[in-house]
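To: structure subgroup
Subject: Chain for Friday's discussion

All,

I'm putting the inputs and outputs inline so they're searchable in the archive.
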Amino acid sequence: MPPLRPAANTDVYGQLLDMSGYEGVMFILPVEDSVATGIATLQAQSDTDPAGGSMAAVPGAVATKTSAVNDDLNDGCLVVDFYKPAKRYVRAEIKSATANIAFGTCLALQYSGRKKPTVQDVAEVLASALSVSGDAA
């Protein structure tokens, strides 16, 4: 998901993730700029529908922070760790309310996979590496 411009009353959704074969997903959302009274929210949603037609908020899977003064949330992040989702499909919901909040790119890290990782889209991955043992030479 690309960075979001500063805005109040923004409601944006992340890409739908298939959790089959994974124990959980951690959503990490950087806050790049905040204005006093702005409310930044990251919420996990889930669904049984692969098209996401009936996504619903997951109780307790929400991180919210209100900006007390201008720029106090800058360079921080919101994190939601959604462990063992009951429904197969999940996504992040990103909200700003009351005053402007600018977000960076939301990352979704699926973990404890029981299958090989997904092949990366060459157009989006500029470089990658895989280390099996991590031992120094």
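Points worth raising on Friday:
The longest strand covers residues 24-34.
The mean pLDDT is 87.

D.
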